[in-house]
Specification:
By secondary structure, this protein is α/β, with parallel strands linked by helices. It is 34% helix and 25% strand. It has helices at 5-14, 38-46, 63-66, 82-92, 128-134, 152-159, 164-168, 172-181, 201-210, 224-237, and strands spanning 29-31, 53-56, 74-79, 98-101, 115-121, 135-146, 185-198, 240-252. The chain has an eight-stranded mixed sheet with strand order 1-7-8-6-5-2-3-4, sandwiched between helices. α3 links the parallel β2 and β3. The N and C termini lie far apart (66 Å).
Length: 256
C-alpha cells in the first residue's frame, strides 16, 4: 500500500541531514555516477609517494576522504558547518587527519606552498587564488565540481524558470578560466550530465533539506503546496527525472 503524503513528508523532515552521506536515499532516489570515478582517482593521488602533504577542502563529514586506503604523512581537511566538523573530526582523527573549522572564505588557514595536493568533492565555493597559494610549485588540485544547472528540473519546479546567469553558474569553462587567471595550468577537464530520479516525495524533501543551496530557505511548511503537487505527479506518472551535472578538473601549479 502506498504511503501517504503526510507520512512521507513527516519522515523526511525529521531525519538528520548531518554529514555528506546520502545512504538514506537508497531505494528512494537514484543518480548516475560520473565515469571517471572520483573517489578512486583521489585515493590513488593521496597514496602517491611523491605526495607528502595534502589538503581536502570542504570535506563535509569526511566520508569521501575516509575511503582513501592510504593517506600522506601530513593530511589536513577543512569544513565550515559545525555538525560536519564534529563528524569529520570523529571519523578522520583516528587516521591522523587534522580537521580545521574554516568559514569557506579566503584566506585558507595554511601557509604558502604548504601542500603537494589539494582535493575537493563538490565544493560550494572555489577560491582559486587561495588554492594556488597553498600549493607547492608542481603541486596539483584534483576535484569533482558540481556543474551548471544541476538538478534544475527540480529547482525550477519550486522556484520557476531561472535566469541564464544563474543557469550558467559553475560552468567548467568559467572555472578553468578562473584557475588559469590564478596562475594554474589545466591538466584535465571532463564534463558529464547524469540522470537522477526521485521515487517519492520524501526523497525530494530530504534532498532539499540537505543540499540547502538548491532551493534557498526550503522548509516543508513554506513549500507544502508544491510538495503535494509533486507527490501527486510522482504517484500518477512515476519517478521525477532530473539531471545532475559534474565535472572533473585537474589544475597544476607550474614548477619553480
Amino acid at each position: 500500500m502506498s504511503r501517504t503524503f503526510d507520512d512521507l513528508v513527516a519522515e523526511a523532515d525529521a531525519v538528520s541531514v548531518e554529514g555528506w552521506d546520502f545512504s538514506w536515499l537508497d531505494g528512494r532516489a537514484t543518480e548516475q555516477r560520473p565515469s571517471w570515478g572520483y573517489r578512486k582517482l583521489m585515493g590513488a593521488r593521496l597514496a602517491d609517494p611523491a605526495v607528502s602533504a595534502a589538503l581536502d577542502i570542504q570535506t563535509g563529514g569526511g566520508e569521501v576522504l575516509a575511503e582513501a586506503e592510504k593517506l600522506p604523512p601530513t593530511m589536513a581537511a577543512t569544513e565550515s558547518w559545525p555538525p560536519n566538523v564534529t563528524k569529520a573530526t570523529r571519523l578522520l582523527h583516528p587516521r591522523g587527519v587534522v580537521v580545521v573549522a574554516d568559514p569557506d572564505e579566503p584566506p585558507l588557514p595554511f601557509a604558502d606552498a604548504a601542500f603537494d595536493l589539494v582535493t575537493s568533492r563538490h565544493p560550494a565555493t572555489v577560491w582559486w587564488t587561495e588554492i594556488a597559494r597553498v600549493l607547492r610549485p608542481g603541486g596539483t588540485y584534483l576535484a569533482q565540481h558540481v556543474g551548471p544547472a544541476s538538478v534544475f528540473e527540480l529547482v525550477e519546479f519550486f522556484l520557476g524558470p531561472q535566469p541564464e546567469e544563474i543557469r550558467r553558474a559553475r560552468h567548467p569553462d568559467d572555472e578553468s578560466a578562473d584557475a588559469r587567471a590564478a596562475g594554474l595550468e589545466i591538466a584535465d577537464l571532463r564534463f558529464e550530465r547524469l540522470r537522477t530520479e526521485f521515487h517519492d516525495i520524501g526523497a525530494v524533501v530530504y534532498f532539499l533539506r540537505k543540499v540547502i543551496w538548491m532551493v534557498p530557505g526550503f522548509t516543508v511548511d513554506a513549500y507544502r503546496d508544491k510538495l503535494r503537487e509533486l507527490h501527486e505527479r510522482i504517484e500518477a506518472e512515476g519517478p521525477f527525472v532530473a539531471h545532475s551535472t559534474r565535472f572533473l578538473i585537474e589544475a597544476r601549479k607550474p614548477a619553480a
